[in-house]
Amino acid sequence: MDASKAAPAKQVSSVLDATAEEEYASLSKLLQDFTNISSIDKAWTFNSGNGNGTQAMFSISQPNLLANKRKKFMLSTVISKENENSVTFQWAPFPVEMTGASAVVPSPSGSKLLVVRNPENESPIQFELWSQSQLEKEFHVPQTVHGSVYADGWFEGISWNSDETLIAYVAEEPSPSKPTFSLGSTKGGSSDKDCNSWKGQGDWEEDWGETYAGKRQPSLFVININSGEVQAVKGIPKSLSVGQVVWAPLNEGLHQYLVFVGWSSETRKLGIKYCYNRPCALYAVRVSLYKSEASELELKESSSEDLPVVNLTESISSAFFPRFSPDGKFLVFLSAKSSVDSGAHSATDSLHRIDWPTDGNFSSLEKIVDVIPVVQCAEGDCFPGLYSSSILSNPWLSDGCTMLLSSIWGSSQVIISVNVSSGELLRITPAESNFSWSLLTLDGDNIIAVSSSPVDVPQVKYGYFVGKANKGTWSWLNVSSPISRCPEKVKSLLSSRQFSIMKIPVKGVSANLTKVYLRGSLGFGEEALQSLPGKVGSQDVNDVLTAIDHVIDMGLANPSKVTVVGGSHGGFLTTHLIGQAPDKFVAAAARNPLCNLALMVGTTDIPDWCYVESYGSKGKDSFTESPSVEDLTRFHSKSPISHISKVKTPTIFLLGAQDLRVPVSNGLQYARALREKGVETKVIVFPNDVHGIESLTLKAFSILGFGSKSTVNELSTELVACLGVGALYNCYLLIVEAI
Fold this sequence. Notes:
Blueprint lengths: L2 H33 L3 E9 L6 E11 L4 E15 L2 E6 L4 E2 L5 E4 L6 E5 L7 E6 L4 E7 L16 E3 L5 E7 L7 E3 L2 E3 L9 E3 L18 E7 L5 E3 L7 E8 L7 E10 L16 E11 L5 E3 L10 E2 L8 E5 L5 E6 L1 H6 L7 E6 L13 E4 L29 E8 L2 E8 L5 E3 L8 E8 L2 E8 L2 E11 L6 E6 L9 H8 L3 E6 L21 H4 L9 H15 L9 E5 L1 H12 L6 E5 L5 H4 L6 H9 L3 H4 L6 H9 L13 E6 L7 H13 L4 E6 L9 H9 L14 E6 L6 E8 L1
Parallel strand pairs: 33-39, 34-35, 35-36, 36-37
Antiparallel strand pairs: 1-2, 2-3, 3-4, 3-5, 6-7, 7-8, 8-9, 10-11, 11-15, 12-13, 12-14, 15-16, 17-18, 18-19, 19-20, 19-21, 22-23, 23-24, 24-25, 26-27, 27-28, 29-30, 30-31, 31-32, 38-39
Organism: Citrus sinensis (Sweet orange)
Protein name: Acylamino-acid-releasing enzyme
């Protein structure tokens, strides 16, 4: 070989390597800047006591790229409303990190703050009680009393009683002692450490699946904050897993009730994370109290026979998020009856009311009143139905009957007001806004919220009502906040992005184009949502392809540079798309994708879902742990793996090794099959991650990779696609609705 020709080639290669390394370093810095953007998780307001405005506390979180965790902080502010059109937030100079805090719950008066710290080992659970100036008390509850306190947003329930002396909460039932085996003999619960003995794990027990591995039984406890005494609440059957506990209004005498959500599990516990289709009910249990010498309410020992549990919602298959009205006269709750009845993981919710028997006589309990029924078909831009994933602990305006909720409306999340007496419902965030809004807390009758979009960082908003009741409107002020600050390069890149919501005709749906919906997603009515189960792999795939063709025809996307990214059911769609439209995509990425229903049904925590996906709602009734040959054949036909022979798109897989929802074997089988047929394939396994993969590497990919494809729920075909030149540059973000 001619040395004079070889040298320039080596120099070119060296220059390319240096250029690539420089670009990688630049993108890594950009990634760090993006991941440093904080999220606002919760907020609380407190009366200042001196009449000079309100104090507020914000819980914020920030990704920690190296530790693969999220840091949690508290940031305080003083709110001064100078006049009707002006509000000032005076922020503390620095946030305070809440290291090791699992839950933070202020008391109703705002004079006390509970901080719960769950250990990562078998150490005691810490309960800290803070005043405005110092740590007042600290209690260590050993795990022989109970395990970790639930702070997951679903089973989670931490509730102060009215005089702030007792706190009810949900924690893991203490683990049974493990048997010790020794040379053929068994000593139950023995602590024998002889070298000829070893400890077993005991009998295997069902848990609640994804993100609840090892969690067996959420149970109800009460702690006295004066003495630190902890008691398990008696009378609750072992077949009930409990959550979302609240204290009922104080009755006359010394009997008080706790209201909680109960999930029955006589046999198998099916996965509950993201699954609103698990039947549940509201229950009331009596807690006996007595007055101490200091005239404070104390817990009284009672037998379980003295404290029968009452099912408050026997006539409805789902009831959760209980909230009492300020006057204690009625109890409001959400229901996912549509999900339970159909088998869909998340469907259209309904809101209900029970008149509370203040005398404790539940035999006189009146029927459940429908406040917001399920909306079957959303006409035009009218209210599409209720889709709420949480309710504030105190969602009430001062009239005592109007509550505020966040709910999905079309392709965005909005804030609505609901009069639970009359059923009147209003959208109070701007109708012209495509941003998504989350309700954080109330400041009297004013609202503190956060809004954001795919191209706008979270922004704190302050809402107030202008005019007289029934004749006024809500106005919104932008709040300058250190939380929403980000580097100039990030601002510049985001400001260059375009974001819009487009309505796209879908073939063969309906000639009545006033009916606007995206089939399978939340936010468009129950009829549109329930059209997808039984038609997965066809209806949803065709909707996505129709949307892509539409934006290509509009000139918004280059057909030779379209990529697809999706996770979970979005991963199901991603792998279906590259099989059914093999020439459409230049690259693909799938996070924990469902690729083979026939494989998944025997390994997932939600095998019933495989039947509903394949057969529609009737699959709920035919679910069995032992699928037939016909079932397995149908599962395969509905799966992306049935189209794998046509795939030629280079694909990267991001898989969580601890995923119980779509176990890692699903993605690995598909990736190995692609490699077998010579398709360029890359697999990244996250050894400690579950289905969601909260690792920041994944977040990096969605920011710096091909774009994003996500779904509103497990059965969703919400189209969120970055279509354009790929990577971070010159791409258009389009949210597409089908009509």
